[in-house]
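Record 1 of the preview.
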Amino acid sequence: MELTDNRREGGTLALGSLLGIVPVMSILAVSSQVSVGYVGNAAAVPAFERLGHEVWRVDTVAFSNHPGHHRFTGKVRPDHEIAELLRGVGEHTGWGGLQGVYSGYLGEADTGRVLAKTLDTIRCAAPDAIYACDPVIGDHGRVFVREGVENAIREELVPRAQIITPNAFELARLSGHRVETVGDAHAAAVTLLEWGPAVVIGTGIPDGDHLAIVAVTADTNLIARSPWRDRPFFGTGDLFTALFLAHYLPASDPAAALAKAVAGLEVATAATEAAGTKDLALIANLDAIVGAKPAAVDRLS
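->
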């Protein structure tokens, strides 16, 4: 192929633009893995990849299925293995091209401390990378992580995050506020802004016949609503955080990212309900999930 002089300038980048090649944008994903179902990295990674990101994946546990099914097998990956994997990823990549970091379920408290040290290293090598922390602690009034994990999230990860996405129970645990209404969620989220995150998103907030998602930043308060589906779903928090981060990265626009993430989540939950399962009906509906028409997002007064 013969290129004109102006296309020769910039070398590979100019040729890539000519051929329509998109630069690689990478996300480090640190969360759980299940063999059956879609939670943790099994939910987040397909969404990231479908939206054009290369994923550097580190699994904190290897379980047969979501423990909410009551019977499962597998094990938690010890912190020294996580540390070794993260060190290897860093040595191999130099953290070059890293745009985002996603973390979810931690198998043990020391994994949180290992991740915190890695985040500090990343901050030096890739200062513009956005860290989204899904602070997985529990739900429906019950803590379901190992002892010490909650403190590791509170002390090590939340202060380092630009985005956090707690559910109503986790928002209450972290903030010390009661979270039973949209107003409660807003007050709790404002408290957590003081810890360092730029965006605090409370999910699954009771709001009449709907569930609300409340997003708070230093200068805006947003709310989106979804129909209340009176049934369990496994993996919705993981998928929401992945969708929000992936849609947030191009322009750091919380309203646009929230609208797209909520819309995608609604597609996923409707498909899962229709399938009669608890595990997300993810893969067959992935195109519809990532391409859903943005949901309505309002300003919260």
